[in-house]
Amino acid sequence: MHVPILRRPEALKPGDTVALMALASKIDYDKVIPPAIAVLEKWGLKVVEGQSLKSHWHTFAGTDDIRRADYQRFLNDTSVRAIISARGGYGSSRILDQIDYTAFQQHPKWVAGFSDITAVLCDIYRQGIESLHATMPKLFFQDETGYSLESLRKLLFGEEVIYQTVPQADNRSGTATGTLVGGNLCLFVHVAGSPADVDTKGKILFLEETEEFHYSVDRYMVQLRRAGKLEGLAGLIVGSFSELRDKPEDFGMSIREIIQYWVKDYSFPVVYGFPVGHEAGNLALPVGRNARLTVASDEVRLEFV
């Protein structure tokens, strides 16, 4: 499953058009979308809206056909320079097998989101094009510091980002270089064996999760190990594992202890507590971009090359 050096969509500039749609779960339009549009317009962007933003079908933002049509239309429309999913939830993988990336290959554009949208980002990665694991309109204002939203803006507009975080006692020191891949742990496991499956050998893998039991996280890590996704990793970045459904003592190990157990036979550097995931601190990460990870007792640094 060799993927060539990924192509990077052109940086946005003032006056460009971006599309908002809901790739997965339904959205509270009045609460979420007008404030998000105001932010994007403040950045100098024009916004077009998908039908999915106002559509409901069971838990989804409209039927699969509505969400698929939105996504395909925005992929094909050369005037749209980025597609941002309003939220995650569940449902994006239901539509991926019917997507035609022909026009997208000819005119790459940014696709951004996280959580359930991990499946979409993995699909984009398999097309050989970078995408953005980043905060979404439903969560634009969760981070009171504004760092998460600003990191999305910087990457969309082609500005340099270098991330430095507070070293953790559980970190495993080392230096890694490789392509950055990953996202939500459940979804990354979910796409294994599908056309969106990602070869992790030589890559820097980042993982985050929310609303899971400890045993479920262990099961996902077992699957990563059995599927060979940990073998040959260049480095591992562990983000937030938030709002867990039970306590460490219920399973017998904490999240860090679970991950440590399954990576103990490897020597790649490991970072814990990186600000990515379902918490206020959710820094935007360019999936598919070459990166350098430095982990030391006095420094944790992620930079892009």
TrEMBL record:
Superkingdom as given in the UniProt entry: Bacteria
Domain LD-carboxypeptidase N-terminal intervals: 18-134
Protein name in UniProt: Muramoyltetrapeptide carboxypeptidase
This protein's record includes keyword Protease: yes
Residue numbers annotated as active site: 115 (nucleophile), 208 (charge relay system), 278 (charge relay system)
Classification via InterPro entries: Carboxypeptidase_A_C_sf (IPR027461), Class_I_gatase-like (IPR029062), LdcA_N (IPR027478), Peptidase_S66_N (IPR040449), Peptidase_S66C (IPR040921), S66_fam (IPR003507)
Family as reported in the entry's similarity comment: Belongs to the peptidase S66 family.
Keywords associated with the record: Carboxypeptidase, Hydrolase, Protease, Serine protease
LD-carboxypeptidase C-terminal domain boundaries: 177-293
Any one Gene Ontology BP term: proteolysis
Annotated GO MF terms: carboxypeptidase activity; serine-type peptidase activity
Organism: Siphonobacter aquaeclarae
Entries under Pfam families matching the protein: Peptidase_S66 (PF02016), Peptidase_S66C (PF17676)
